[in-house]
Amino acid sequence: ALPGHLLRGLLPLLTVFHLERAEHAARRAGLSTQPIWRKLWDDVMKTRPPNSESVTCWRKKFLETFFSNVLHGVLDVSSDWRLNDRHFSPLLHSSPHVSQLTLCNMLQGAVELTAEHNHKVLENLAGSLRILKFQHLLSCDQSIRRSLVLLLHRLIHHGSVSQVSMYSWPVPDTVLLVLILTMSAGFWRSGNALPYHSSPCSLCREEDKAQSQEVSQEGAERGCNAEQEGSGGENQKRSPKEADAHMNSVLSGPRSPPLQNPVCEETSSEVPCGHTTIQDSSSPHSSSEQLSCHPIPRKTRRRLKPAVGRKRRCLRRSRGHYADPEDLYDFVFTVAREDNSGLLDKTRTTEGENTENWTSSSPGSPCTGQAGCKKRGGLAGIFSLKAAHRFRSVSTLELFSIPLTGETCRTLSNLLSSWVSLENLVLSYNGLNANISCILSGLRVLSRHPECRFRVLRVSDMFSHMPCMELVRCILSALPQLHTLSVSFDLKNQLEGSRPEANPSCSEAEIPESCLEVLEIRFPREPLHAAFLLPVLKASKSLQQLSLDSATLPCPQELGLLLEVLKECTPNLKKLSFHDVNLADQQKEVLLLLQDPGLQEITFSFCRLFESSTAEFLSEIINTVKRNSSLKSLKLPGNRLGNHRLVALADIFSEDSSSSLCQLDVSSNCIKPDGLLEFTKKLEGHSQQRGGQLPFTQLRLFQNWLDQDADTAQEALRRLRALCSVVNDAWDSSQAFADYISVM
After folding, report:
1. CATH code for residues 574-743
2. How far is Cα 310 from Cα 267, in angstroms, rounded to an integer?
3. Among candidates 426, 379, 436, which has minimal Cα distance to 133?
């Protein structure tokens, strides 16, 4: 209730505890606490946060980082008087502001968060945390894995975590990796290792109780109705099998049934890769938009319909799964060290039925190189998942720099096949090679699920197992519902001759119409043939963004052919990007692209545009852009513009221009402070001629030589910021030049 002027003077004197409590009062008084939180960051963290320009709330930024630093023991709260308050519990009071958290090394953070004294902290995180990251993990003992199981169960299965990311794990602990993947997919075997002496967990128990009451009530109502209608005799007409199933559904109560090997269902014989998969419950609770904490009830389970009239014999299942007290981590630990052949159910097929794999030519089957995935279970195995319950799962999975063995890929493929809530999958530098076929086989099965939400796939690696365009065609053939596809490789192959030849069945097969909107391809210095890209573009009528990186043009006419293909096949294309593609001799095609009325953003990044050009070419570029009213963004990083070409580009915004260009990127173009100042002055003149109505809103200047004359650079930047937003960095050009010389 303090007056605004008193509150303004009081806020900087408050501890973090009282500043947090005064937030609402300050807001009511029209006061912003952002400068105070920013100063707290500078004083306590003593580092400049990455992308500080994009920080919208310093209060959240500070408290989230503060939570992480305290949890990992890298910040002493007694180091600053504003943190040292007897009313202030660091983890408890900052946890509601934590939306992403990173656990690393020996998972000490998981042990701390699952300790009984941090019960309230964990409850807060269950409501606020959206992104859970693991980085630089090390092998850990069983007690730490136990804590991790509890943490994942609370934050994913009964929480709000929608993304799990793992980074930099050169020698992954297979048991730990499979455990994280399995629980991220929503699987868990409850047992006697739960916190606070509760088994099963308190939330599971409450849900079980509520669902048991519902089942009992429904059973009573059915019994009453049956008695009133005199239908008691109909129960006797049930077959023994139906009666047994009915009794089993009542006795099993609220808990979801064990996940079944799909060979027990009526499945298609065209399951790629020949390996068994998990048939997921078709429940809206699995979607990322409405992710429920509840296990999926039995009544929502659906069966895959048989394809081409073939069925597989059902394997008899044990009914004793619920009595097993083992936890998932114990089970994975055991299975990972035993021979898969002794643990996995054998897939029985009807007599004469052929096993299919990725090299099959059945309709719609994805294709691969010479190596497909074998008909074997994954590391965790079908058997380990049969006894697991299905809970809420995440919608985004990211694996960066984590080697995945064939066994781990089969396990991941098995999980992916029923992961209906999954929308985004990022696999980066995992050494997949031929195992990419196994991953795609699981995704292909997933894509057939009626509630599949999978839309984004990003695959990048050091070596490519097959030509990039062949892989793109295989992926789109298997996953026509993809909206975004990114394929990136650094090198063609690890050893000369190790990569298989192009698969004819893949190259010749027609690609079904896809929903693709974004396509990004980074070629490992492969030739870019328009003929190979043509089938992909024909199937992608909805394509809005295309990025081609590190490709080589086999002949000067190839780019012209590509432009014809783009014009014919992609009427909705809005963004086109070329990176590290030599366009020095493609001046005519560059001008054609710049005058395309459909494109809103064009990028020529490190394309050597002006390597062999004349002054007339630059003038033609400027005049073409001036006449194009649809182009909003032009990005020219790494093209050796220099000062004189930058100054000339200012004429794009002259009084006689009809350009609507909003963003110009001239990063890495050898621009010096005096050139930037001259560009600014010219831009100011055009602005005055147009009455201050420039469409230009942003200039990007990363990695230019602005440190050579700091005073001139500061004046140019100050005057530029009066006209538009300027995004730059403090780049040391002398050090960069020294680094360049050192590797020559």
Report:
1. 3.80.10.10
2. 8
3. 426
Alpha carbon 405 to its chain centroid, in Å, reads 21
pLDDT in tens, 344-367: 333 333 333 333 333 222 323 333
Contacts of 157 by beta carbon, 8 Å cutoff, 6+ apart: 183, 186, 188, 293, 391, 392
Q: What is the mean pLDDT of residues 104-117?
A: 94
- Asked whether 442 and 478 are in contact (CB, 8 A), the reply is no
Does the pLDDT at position 121 exceed 90? Answer: yes
Strand pairing category for 163-167 and 131-137: parallel
The full set of domain ranges for the chain reads 99-190+390-454, 574-743
Return the closest-CA partner of residue 479 out of 365, 311, 356. Answer: 365
- Note whether 486 and 352 are within 8 A (CB): no
Between β-strands 187-188 and 389-390, what pairing exists: parallel, antiparallel or unpaired?
Answer: antiparallel
Burial class of residue 600, CB neighbours in 10 A (0-12, 13-18, 19+) = middle
Q: Among all chains, which residue has been given the structure tokens 């995004």?
A: 727
Residue reference for tokens 């105070």 = 36
The radius of gyration of the chain's CA atoms, rounded to the nearest angstrom, is 30
More confident residue, 38 or 734: 38
Tell me phi and psi for residue 464, to 5 degrees.
Answer: -95, 135
Closest CA to 446 of 370, 372, 395: 395
Its CATH architecture, for the domain 99-190+390-454, is Alpha-Beta Horseshoe (3.80)
Q: What is the rounded average pLDDT of the residues 694-700?
A: 93
Tokens representing 709 are: 């004359």
For residue 114, give the 3-state DSSP assignment.
coil
Q: How confident is the model at residue 385 (pLDDT cuts 50, 70, 90)?
A: low
Amino acid at 633: S
Position 315 pLDDT exceeds 70: no
For the chain, the distance separating the N- and C-terminal CA atoms, rounded to the nearest angstrom, is 67
Output the furthest CA–CA distance in the chain (Å, rounded).
Answer: 97
Average pLDDT score over residue span 650-670: 95
Give the pLDDT score at 692. Answer: 86
**Domains 99-190+390-454 and 574-743 belong to one CATH topology:** yes
Helix (H) or strand (E) holding 521: strand 518-522
pLDDT of 480 higher than 70: yes
The DSSP code sequence of 239-302 is -HHHHHHHHHHHHHTTSPPPP--GGGS---TT-GGG---PPPP--GGGSSTT--SSPPPGGG--
Cis peptide before 200 (omega within 30 of 0): yes
Percentage with pLDDT > 70 across the chain = 70
- With a CB cutoff of 8 Å and minimum separation 6, the contacts of 289 are none
- C-beta pairs of 337-345 under 8 Å, 24+ apart in sequence: 340/376, 340/377, 340/379, 340/381, 340/407, 343/377, 343/381, 343/383, 343/384, 344/376, 344/377, 344/381, 344/382, 344/383, 345/261, 345/263, 345/276, 345/315, 345/382, 345/383, 345/386
With residue 520 as reference, give the H or E element that holds it.
strand 518-522
Report which secondary-structure segment, H or E, holds 180: helix 174-184
pLDDT in tens, 561-587: 999 989 889 999 999 999 999 999 999
pLDDT confidence of residue 242:
47
Q: What is the pLDDT of residues 627-646, one digit of tens each?
A: 999 999 999 999 999 999 99
CA atoms within 13 A on the CB side of 326: 16
Separation between Cα atoms, residue 314 and residue 262, nearest integer Å:
9
In the chain, count H helices and then E strands: 28, 17
Q: Output the six-digit token pair for 388.
A: 């697991």
Q: How confident is the model at residue 491 (pLDDT cuts 50, 70, 90)?
A: confident
